[in-house]
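Running this now, will post back.
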Amino acid sequence: MKKFRRFAVLAILVLGLAACTERASPIPVSPLAPVVAPPVLGREFPVETGDQIQVVVFNQVDLSGEHIIPVDGIISIPLVGTVTAGGRTVKQIEAEITQILSQGFLQDPKVSVRVSKYRPVAVIGGVNRPGSLEYQPGMRVIGAVAAAGDFSPEAILTKPPFIIRAGVKQVATVNDVIYPGDIIEIPANRVRR
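Update: finished.
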């Protein structure tokens, strides 16, 4: 019986030490909250810093062009001036450009705005090649892990992945859809050097 008690105490100590080797997360986790998805990608999805949009004013090549959304969210278009694009949908951006152009520059302007490239996603933690990945619409956590070289030997596969979206860390599943700018964290044991 004494050997069993010693073994049990030793097992508890080993498990306790193993738990200490994991990194503490600086971002609080809400395990009860499901991953909150933003609006569906497309015309109702707000563009943010790092997204690239294409503005087309029909029959006006000089007014058309590509724009990467800067940190302040403001883009500059000839004859239009500055337009706040960050945090707005392409429909809202189209409407503002159309309104400005119709106030004396063009009669009945036809404006089209589309996202030509989304900001990247990042995969960190227990993957073989952590870092940024080009976002693809419909991408899921498992697809991002595969693109990052699959799970590393340090990955803790008994713990769920996390999605960090707009500064909020949420428990996820490998089947959750990810969005531009998301950070996917795969729990991992601390790598010793």
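The longest helix spans residues 2-20. More later if anyone needs it.
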